[in-house]
Write a structure and sequence with these properties.
about 375 residues, alpha/beta, Rossmann fold, Rna Polymerase Sigma Factor, Chain: A, four-stranded mixed β-sheet, 15 helices, binds nicotinamide-adenine-dinucleotide, binds magnesium ion
């Protein structure tokens, strides 16, 4: 069997390192053809030695590149469009992943997409570029992987409703007065998943679930009225699909990104993997579900409203959130300021088109600027 070339963009991150762990077990099917990272040259070098890719890219200016590495942001598009790459794992965090996703689907590649921000800021553009280029978008996000697995060949017309599960994050049981005082360390303490810093904060504000509803809207072509969220603290059920006949399917498993990564590579096939974390119902006497405390986590409703509003609003939601999260992580603003920043940016810059790359980037820039000015940064 010939192997398929895989590019791992963001190979030094949480999803990126998980992806390489999975790829190392499936060398008979997949070959790591390209790796990129932002600035962690040490880990990137170790990975390059282990996997011997034909292309290595480092994005950050000032990072010391090694002999033969490609330097600068354009390395992402280069890696994503190479002739020896057929699958691109986009594990970059944030809007920085947009051009690589667009270029990969335009070049007819399969994109295994962890970088949900790409689809949120430019869902219609990505979908259209994908259609024209003959590319394919397969989710790595665990909820969307669960939905894709439950769909198993059915189409959106067979679906009545999706129910995305949310762990509830570290603050599921915190009351508003305590939330107002939440520290960076508190917010990074995710109960069920170990992830990068940005998505950990998004999980604490529930902005992550809004990003995921918008992601599901574009991936599965369903209206916002058909997508719901339920809190499930154990993170065992990764999401539900209710079909038009009333049947509800769920996909379950121990919280691990290894399966969503492997499935994004092999879909619609399933490939044996004995090292995959196993699920034992006997050790989970209780799986529970509860409603989201929407009033206490305003980022969720703001994101859902931005999705429904369409145009530039989802890009503004995403960019304001990214900017506010980075200010929070720099200890410049408080936890609840993140939602305030999103609300204000949407009120000031949420109108406008979002159907071209230029429009999306303009909305993204205006939202970031607005948030910086709001906190006099
Ligand atoms: P991370 O911070 O651990 O890793 C991010 C990776 O992207 C790193 O390799 C970094 O070098 C690279 N990167 C960061 N900024 C960059 C830039 N400006 N240009 C180029 N490369 C850059 O993040 P993560 O937790 O692995 O998350 C990656 C993406 O996957 C996010 O979109 C996140 O929402 C999504 N996701 C993550 C998980 C998870 O379990 N970690 C689960 C579902 C979805
Ligand atoms: Mg998710």
């Amino acid at each position: 069997m010939s192997t398929r070339g895989v590019a791992v963009l963001g190979s030094t991150g949480s999803v990126g390192t998980t992806a390489l762990r999975v790829l190392a077990r499936h060398r008979d099917r997949f070959r790591v053809a390209a790796l990129t990272a932002f600035s962690n040259t040490e880990l990137l070098e170790t990975q390059a030695l282990e996997f011997a890719p034909s292309f290595v890219g480092i994005c950050a200016n000032g990072a010391t590149p090694h002999h033969g590495w490609t330097e600068g942001t354009q390395c992402l598009v280069e890696a994503a469009t190479r002739g020896d790459v057929s699958i691109v794992i986009n594990a970059i965090v944030g809007a920085a992943g947009l051009d690589a996703t667009l270029a990969a689907v335009a070049a007819g590649k399969r994109v295994a997409l962890a970088n949900k921000e790409t689809l949120v800021m430019a869902g219609a553009l990505v979908a259209e570029t994908c259609r024209r280029g003959g590319g394919e978008l397969i989710p790595v996000d665990s909820e969307h992987s669960a939905i894709l697995q439950c769909m198993a060949g059915r189409t959106s017309a067979d679906v009545r409703r999706l129910v995305l599960t949310a762990s509830g994050g570290p603050f599921r049981e915190w009351m508003p007065d305590r939330l107002a005082m939440a520290t960076i360390a508190d917010a990074l303490q995710h109960p069920t998943w170990r992830m990068g810093r940005k998505i950990s904060i998004d999980s604490a504000t529930l902005a992550n679930k809004a990003l995921e509803v918008i992601e599901a809207h574009f991936l599965f072509g369903l209206s916002y009225d058909q997508i719901e969220v339920v809190v499930h603290p154990q993170s065992i059920v990764h999401s539900f699909v209710e079909f038009v006949d009333g049947s509800v399917l769920a996909q379950m498993g121990t919280p691990s990104m290894e399966l969503p990564v492997l499935y994004a590579l092999t879909h619609p096939e399933r490939v044996a993997d004995d090292a995959m974390p196993r699920f034992d119902p006997g050790v989970w006497p209780e799986l529970s579900f509860e409603r989201v405390r929407t009033e206490d986590f305003p980022a969720l409703a703001l994101g859902l409203a931005a999705g429904r509003r369409g145009g530039a609003a989802p890009a503004v939601f995403n960019a304001a959130n990214e900017q506010a999260v980075s200010l929070f992580l720099a200890n410049r603003i408080r936890f609840m300021d993140i939602a305030r920043a999103i609300e204000s940016a949407l009120a000031h810059c949420g109108d406008g088109p979002g159907d071209t790359r230029a429009a999306v980037l303009a909305a993204d820039g205006a939202a970031r600027q607005h948030v910086l000015e709001m906190f006099a940064c």
